[in-house]
Amino acid sequence: MWGHEQLDSFANAETGKIYNMIPYSLLDLAPITQNSTAARAFHNSLDLAQHAEKWGYHRFWLAEHHNMTGIASAATAVVIGYVAQGTKRIRVGSGGIMLPNHAPLVIAEQFGTLASLYPGRVDLGLGRAPGTDQVTVRALRRDHSSADTFPQDVLELQAYFKPAHPGQAVQAVPGAGLEVPLWLLGSSLYSAQLAAALGLPFAFASHFAPDYLIQALTIYRQHFKPSQQLQEPYAMAAVPVFAADNDSEARVLMSSVQQQFIALRRGTPGPLRPPLDSIEDHYSAAELAGAGHALQEAVYGSEAQISAGLKAFIARTGVNEVILTGHIFDHQKRLRSFEIAAAACRGL
Question: pTM of whole model > 0.90?
Fold first, then answer.
């Protein structure tokens, strides 16, 4: 039986020092920056994961998106394997796999393979959205109504990870008997209700859709039913983080993601753009307000500001774990941001 990790105390992989805190993790989409390539994005993701492991991050998750020229992690299981091969301790997984795009058996085989290669380190987070537009959904050979069978698909996938019984016609090979831990991900109330009903851990996408954060967590906790995998509710929420050695630099670094949100709403998504010193000079007040709404849970600034922001977020939500994200144009500055954030988490 797999339950959530008891991580009130754990050791930093680099120093060996024992910390008492809730776990902090990292969500990456392998962002492709302007005038760069997917190959560079993958190398940067591995480099980030290797540093994150040293800084005490618990998980490193990658997300599935398709037909988006600014995101390289479309073949999510492949990228997870690449990251897992280059790291030693940190848990690796999906945040998430968009299950309506796939046959459950195929995902069971992919993650059964990962769990066989990297035992005890693989998470399988599942989402109900397609992670793309409807034209691309058809190109993926999936029906637009596939999301309607999401609960049944989750149960089918879960069954493939259980030990095979005699005479079972279809087995996941590898996969059967590996009990790969499942998570449900969501940005609304639907997945919170389903995670509660199935007794699964739940992760909320508050890094881009914060409106239902508190309501979803409340529903999940109130309606949770213990399962073989999990005996009590375990909730994680995503926080956008933009950290630097001073507050003004951090504010500028965040402007790349603001531009990304605005471009998406304009229908012109693309590679991650360089930061702007004065973003207000380039976009309308309405566009900035829209991006600001999506990023309302973001914390930015120096370590002191990050610490205060995360402390307030944890107190307000009561989450068991935080998963940090933040697309920053310059890779070295992105590394520095997550290093500062890790120090802030250790100091909470």
Answer: yes
